[in-house]
Design brief:
single chain; mainly beta; five-stranded mixed β-sheet; five-stranded antiparallel β-sheet; elongated
C-alpha cells in the first residue's frame, strides 16, 4: 500500500515564526510555501487492486474535479484528471482511510464551503464517500507581516 507524507505547518512550527521576524519586503521574511485548500479523509472499503480504473470525484460547492484511479495492486495514484478551480494534489491511503489533498487559488475559500468526495472502484461500486462543511484556518508560515498566508481546512 502506498503511503505519502506531506508536511503540514503545526502550531509548534508557527510558534517559531516570530524568530524569523520581518515584514513583506524585508530580507528577514522566509519564503515557505503553503497551500490554500483542504484535506479530506474518509473511510473506504476495497482493495487497491479493485481501484484500478476506478474514479474519484471531489467537489467544493459546485466546482468538481474527477480523476481516473490507477493501481498496480499495491499502490494507487491519480491518472488524468479534470480541474477547474480545484486541483487534486495527493491521493493516499492509510489503513482503511482514503486521504485527498486539494488546492485552489487564494480568495476562493469561504467558511461553510461544502466539500464532497466519492470514490468508485473498477466495477462502479462506491467504496468511499463523504460530505463536510469547511472552517478554514489561516496559516502564516512566513509570519503575519510577510504575506497573506494561506487558508486551509482538515476535514474528517
Amino acid at each position: 500500500m502506498k503511503h505519502m507524507i506531506h508536511l503540514l505547518v503545526t502550531a509548534s512550527t508557527l510558534a517559531m515564526i516570530p524568530l524569523l521576524g520581518g515584514c513583506q519586503d524585508s530580507p528577514d521574511c522566509s519564503t515557505l510555501a503553503c497551500r490554500n485548500g483542504a484535506t479530506l479523509t474518509a473511510q473506504y472499503v476495497s482493495s487497491p487492486a479493485r481501484l484500478n480504473g476506478g474514479r474519484l470525484l471531489v467537489c467544493r460547492n459546485k466546482t468538481c474535479s474527477y480523476a481516473t484511479v490507477q493501481s498496480d495492486g499495491f499502490s494507487v495514484s491519480i491518472g488524468s484528471y479534470f480541474m477547474q478551480e480545484l486541483a487534486m494534489d495527493y491521493l493516499t491511503f492509510d489503513g482503511d482511510k482514503v486521504i485527498v489533498t486539494l488546492e485552489g487559488p487564494r480568495g476562493t475559500q469561504r467558511d461553510g464551503d461544502l466539500y464532497t468526495l466519492e470514490l468508485r472502484d473498477s466495477t462502479g461500486m462506491v467504496v468511499a464517500s463523504g460530505r463536510w462543511q469547511a472552517q478554514y484556518e489561516t496559516i502564516d508560515p512566513n509570519g503575519e507581516e510577510c504575506d497573506d498566508g494561506c487558508l486551509y481546512a482538515e476535514l474528517h
